[in-house]
Amino acid sequence: MPQWFGGREAGTAPGMAVTRIVVAEDDSSIRELLVHHLERDGFHCDQAADGPSALRLVRTGADALILDLGLPVVDGFDVLRALRREGRELPILVLTARSDEIDRVVGLEIGADDYVVKPFSPREVVARVKALGRRAGLTSIQAPVVLTFERLEIDEAAREARIDGVNVGLKPREFALLLELASNAGVALSRETLLERVWGYEFDGDHRTVDVHVRRLRSKIEDGAQLAPLLHTVHGFGYKFARG
C-alpha cells in the first residue's frame, strides 16, 4: 500500500507531507468544485478530464484517485482495470451518474474502494476520501485554520465565529458562507459560485438564498457587534469580504 502522505513539496516544513489526489472528471465545473473543497482541506490535487490523463497522472505517483466512470477516450471502468492490473493499490473513489446497481457493483468488483452517485455534496466526497485514508490506518496532517479580522475570529476547527472571544452563535450554513467569503478576502464571489461551494452544485434553490444568509450574517456580526462593514455587495454579481 502506498503511503497516504507520500511526498513533500518544496517550501513545506520538514515532516510535513502532502497528500496528492488525482481528480478525474470530464465536467469542468464538477471537477473544479471538488478540487476547491479538497484543497481547502489540505490536499494537493491534479486534474484529469479524460482516461489517458488520469492514467498518466496516477502513474507518476498519486496517493489516491477520484474517478468518474463516464470519462471520455478511456472510460473509468478501463482506467480502474488497468491500474489494478498494474498492482497499484492506491485508494480509488468512483463517481458515477449511472443509477443502475450493476454499474456500482462492477466498479467495486474490479477494484474500487468506494463510490458516490451523482448528484452529490462535495463535502460528502471529501469525507469519504478521508474515511478511505482512515481505513488504511493513515492520518491527516491538516492544521486547523483560524482567520482573524481585528475583533473577529473565524475558527474552522471549532466551527465558531467569535467577536472579542465570544461565540456569535452562527448556524452551520451561515458559518460555511462566512468562512468561504473570509477565506477569499478581497475577492468578489458570484452568487452562483457561493451556491456551488457552500450549498453544493445539486442545490435547487435560487440566488435569494445567498442574499438571505448574508443579511443574517450582517445582523449578527456587523450590526450586533458594531463592527466596520465586512460583507460588501458587488451589485449585479455577488459579495466580497473586506480585507483585514
Q: How are the SSEs ordered, and which strands pair?
A:
Elements: E1 20-24, H1 28-40, E2 44-48, H2 51-59, E3 64-68, H3 76-85, E4 92-96, H4 101-109, E5 114-117, H5 122-135, E6 146-149, E7 152-155, E8 160-163, E9 166-167, H6 172-183, E10 189-190, H7 191-199, H8 208-225, E11 231-234, E12 238-241
Parallel strand pairs: 1-2, 1-3, 3-4, 4-5
Antiparallel strand pairs: 6-7, 7-8, 8-9, 10-12, 11-12
Can you put this structure into words, describing what you see?
By secondary structure, this protein is of the alpha/beta class. It has 2 domains: about 20-135, Rossmann fold (3-Layer(aba) Sandwich), CATH 3.40.50; about 145-240, Arc Repressor Mutant, subunit A. About 40% of the residues lie in helices and about 20% in strands. The strands form 3 sheets. The protein has a 5-stranded parallel β-sheet, with helices on both faces.
Radius of gyration: 20 Å
Helix content: 25-40%
Taken as a percent bin, the fraction of beta residues is 15-25%
Number of helices: 8
What structural class results from the helix and strand content? Answer: alpha/beta
> Quick one: biggest sheet?
5 strands, parallel
Low-confidence stretches: 1-18
Q: How many strands appear in the DSSP assignment? A: 12
CATH C-level label of the largest domain: Alpha Beta
CATH topology of the largest domain: Rossmann fold
Task: Report mean pLDDT, rounded to a whole number.
Answer: 82
* Outline: elongated
Which H/E pattern describes the elements? Answer: EHEHEHEHEHEEEEHEHHEE
CATH architecture of the largest domain: 3-Layer(aba) Sandwich
- Major β-sheet strand ordering: 2-1-3-4-5
